[in-house]
Amino acid sequence: MSELNNLALKILEKGKGILAADESNGTMTKRLESVKVSSTPENRLLFRETLFSATSMTECIGGVILYDETIKQETLKKNKIPELILKMGSFPGIKVDTGAKILAGSPEEKITEGLDGLRERLKEYFKLGAKFTKWRGVYNISKSYPSKLSMQSNAHALARYSALVQECNMVPIVEPEVLMDGDHSANECYKKTSEVIKKCFEELILNKVDLKGIILKPNMILAGNKSKDKISNEEVAKLTLQCLKNSVPSEVPGIAFLSGGQSEIEATENLNLINKYNNTNFIMSFSYGRALQQSALKIWSKDTGNIEGTQKVFNHRAKMNTLAAQGRWSRDLEI
Fold it and tell me: Which of these is catalytic: 10, 36, 217, 228?
């Protein structure tokens, strides 16, 4: 078993998932201001450190995706953040793309940038303690989108990124996100997501990426947030499984879903059903941001010194998702 394959499996073992705490300073500022907390480097660190030192990190969280600012910060006890995460029994990771910009030739769509100088940045992050990385490609969905240009450009970027990450002995998380925004049906989401994922793997194979040493982070198959044709959670689970079964090569060890605008309970329920119906060899887990943090953030914002109360809420959500990643969650377990 390759070292990278072993690491990918360890991150997602026993129902563990990934905490996506890689919000940019701009996004984190919006989150904090929405709960009336000033977005200073100290406050951003304080909230994240509160989560990273919670007991569920050991039992439920296999990896934490960090932002450039956070991986270089120290805790109040002068521990480096990657050291704290490792001490809690989880693996530190890092978001390495520099964001989605307008795609030349198709201004309604985005291309993710960050390949320039990436090899050098990866070496620095590896020295800082990162064991895995993340790069997100975003795709609009409508009758005309995603275009072939968008699919090809983002797949190529994801593949080049992955090859460079593996060269640096880290596991790349490959995140092609077909956005929820729009009035499209779940069937349209299924069709477009299948195309996007297949194109990604074409490019990954072309770029000689070891598929056993990656983690795929896709969206679930959902109707658009403005669609009148909503589908049941069972249908979400079945369509998502069908899409991945037909689009993802069997060598890939694990799939960690993004929550993509779903509520906390919805993201947990859909993951649970996916695992109940899972008839593949893929590990199906979670890589959630808001769906793990939102309730904890609300508690913390009322009193930033309430470490215990914040951690209690976070521990609950992490535990619920770990159960869902094993198909063992039920609504009765929610507070």
Answer: 217
